[in-house]
Design brief:
154 residues; mainly alpha; 10 helices
């Protein structure tokens, strides 16, 4: 894969600064760090963003997340490894990431409403929107993910 732009973030510094401010705002809310990273990872999987999948799976591992929960994330609906709150967030993530396909049905909103305060619902929705913007930036410009030396040799 050949990158289309090597440093897109340097070409729109004010926009990237605004995105970084949005990301920083997620740190002050009540959404759990693991939940936020699972949401980011799941949206990135749906969007096929290798750069973001690498980043968020690495961040989850560093935070102590189990390998099995990472492996099972694409099949979270069939797995018992996720809490009801996580499941609500993941369903909302999928519905909003696939907006044109889903229309965001009540079946995906009802669990969010049951497990998240109204302020958390807004934060979660903004988080999902933000990762979708990052995915589009990385996939659109074909940003390569880092490659560990051990992986290259294998």
């Amino acid at each position: 894969m050949t990158p289309r732009l090597r440093t897109p973030h340097l070409l729109a510094p004010e926009s990237v600064k605004a995105m970084m401010a949005l990301e920083a705002s997620f740190e002050t809310g009540s959404l759990e760090p693991t939940l936020k990273e699972l949401v980011r990872l799941r949206a990135s999987q749906i969007n096929g963003c290798a750069f973001c999948i690498h980043m968020h799976s690495t961040d989850l591992r560093k935070a102590g997340e189990s390998e099995m929960r990472l492996y099972m994330l694409p099949a979270w609906r069939e797995s018992s490894l996720y809490s009801e709150r996580e499941r609500a967030a993941l369903g909302w993530t999928e519905a909003l990431t696939r907006l044109a396909e889903t229309g965001v049905p009540d079946a995906d909103y009802d669990p969010v409403q049951a497990h998240f305060s109204e302020a958390e619902q807004v934060q979660l929705t903004l988080l999902i929107g933000a990762i979708n913007v990052w995915n589009r930036l990385q996939v659109g410009f074909r940003s390569p993910h880092p490659v560990e030396r051990a992986s290259v040799a294998a």
